[in-house]
């Protein structure tokens, strides 16, 4: 082979390779992210058309006025996503992004100062809620599923997207509990994977492992999606639940507990685990082993959710 000249095929043979390259570029972002970028970009183009200004390339002045208009009805975090969409669209066509200009950056700073950047935090589902699940859930297959969703979602600190993405093949029951493999998550778009080990609980009635076993058995799941819709006749769909379904299940169950369901979301299960763990003095490293958080700073926002009355700082200060 030494000294041999490699001859390439004609250019038309690169067609399939170029298509594959385009596919890889598309897959560099999650489907939900791509969809949001497209929707935001279409909105910006429509706004530019209505105001008779150029959208591509757009000037910093155009973008600054656009986000000032958005600020009247959108949160700063949503405006930031719109800016990301505009930036991606410009970079895709090799244009300099107007979002990096001083004018746009200072406009964003002004919006943040006036509108604030505090997140709309939902309430966490706590252990005190979980022990009452059997009291409020229906005695049918839907109730069996919802109990498994709550207990597994909490014990594994699952994001709702992770929960609905699970297949039966991702679950392995062990003598100590259950080992669940998350193939892909919000912070792991490359699909490296993350394993969550959930032990048997001390109280059988609230055991996440037993609840999951019962759901798999009663729903006769032999392969495919782990958590699925159940119709009013008790029939199990072969499809998987959606992330929105998890949020609706959480809201429905919390409403049955006489709680304000609007204060809860699909994230409440994950937030509840972290909040209770912090409250009981669990080391952050152990918490991150379950949640998959990459750093200490990412847990910081949960500390305010813990019951700070437990710490009684004022008494410790001698007052």
Describe it.
With 319 residues, the protein is mainly alpha-helical. The chain has two domains: 105 residues, Tyrosine recombinase, N-terminal domain (DNA polymerase, domain 1, Orthogonal Bundle), CATH 1.10.150; 184 residues, Intergrase catalytic core (hpI Integrase, Chain A). The protein is 49% helix and 5% strand. The chain is elongated and about 65 Å long. The termini are far apart.
Oligomer: single chain
**CATH architectural label of the largest domain:** Orthogonal Bundle
CATH topology of the largest domain: hpI Integrase, Chain A
Structural class: mainly alpha
What is the level 1 CATH name of the largest domain?
Mainly Alpha
Instruction: Report the β-strand fraction as a percent range.
Output: 5-15%
- Quote the average pLDDT: 84
Helical amount: 40-55%
Biggest sheet strand order reads 1-2-3
Major sheet characteristics: 3 strands, antiparallel
Shape: elongated
Number of domains: 2
First CA to last CA: what distance?
A: 84 Å
**What is the ordering of alpha helices and beta strands?**
HHHHHHHHHEEEHHHHHH
Rg of Cα set: 25 Å
- Low confidence ranges: 1-12
* SS element count, helices: 15
Q: What's the β-strand tally? A: 3
CATH-level-4 superfamily name of the largest domain: Intergrase catalytic core
């Amino acid at each position: 082979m030494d000294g041999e000249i490699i001859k390439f095929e004609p250019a038309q043979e690169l067609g399939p390779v170029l298509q594959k390259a385009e596919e890889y570029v598309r897959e560099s972002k999650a489907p939900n992210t791509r969809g949001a970028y497209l929707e935001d970009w279409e909105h910006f183009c429509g706004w530019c058309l209505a105001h008779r200004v150029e959208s591509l390339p757009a000037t910093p002045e155009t973008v600054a006025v656009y986000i000032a208009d958005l600020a009247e009805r959108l949160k700063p975090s949503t405006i930031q996503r719109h800016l990301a969409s505009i930036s991606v669209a410009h970079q895709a066509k090799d244009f300099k992004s107007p979002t990096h200009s001083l004018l746009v950056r200072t406009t964003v700073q002004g919006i943040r100062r006036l509108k604030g950047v505090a997140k709309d935090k939902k309430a966490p589902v706590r252990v005190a809620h979980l022990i009452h699940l059997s009291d409020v859930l229906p005695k049918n297959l839907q109730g069996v599923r919802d109990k498994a969703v709550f207990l597994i979602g909490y014990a594994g600190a699952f994001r709702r997207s992770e929960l609905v993405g699970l297949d039966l093949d991702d679950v392995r029951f062990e003598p100590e509990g259950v080992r669940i493999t998350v193939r892909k998550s919000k912070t792991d778009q490359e699909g490296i994977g993350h394993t969550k080990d959930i032990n048997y609980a001390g109280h059988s009635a609230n055991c996440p492992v037993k609840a999951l076993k019962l759901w798999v058995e009663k729903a006769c799941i032999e392969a495919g999606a782990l958590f699925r819709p159940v119709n009013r006749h008790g029939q199990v769909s072969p499809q998987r639940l959606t992330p929105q379904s998890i949020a609706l299940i959480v809201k429905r169950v919390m409403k049955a507990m006489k709680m304000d369901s609007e204060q809860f979301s699909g994230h409440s299960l994950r937030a509840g685990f972290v909040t209770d763990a912090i409250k009981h003095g669990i080391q952050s490293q152990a918490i991150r082993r379950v949640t998959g958080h990459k750093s200490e700073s990412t847990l910081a926002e949960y500390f305010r959710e813990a019951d700070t009355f437990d710490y009684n700082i004022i008494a410790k200060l001698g007052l």
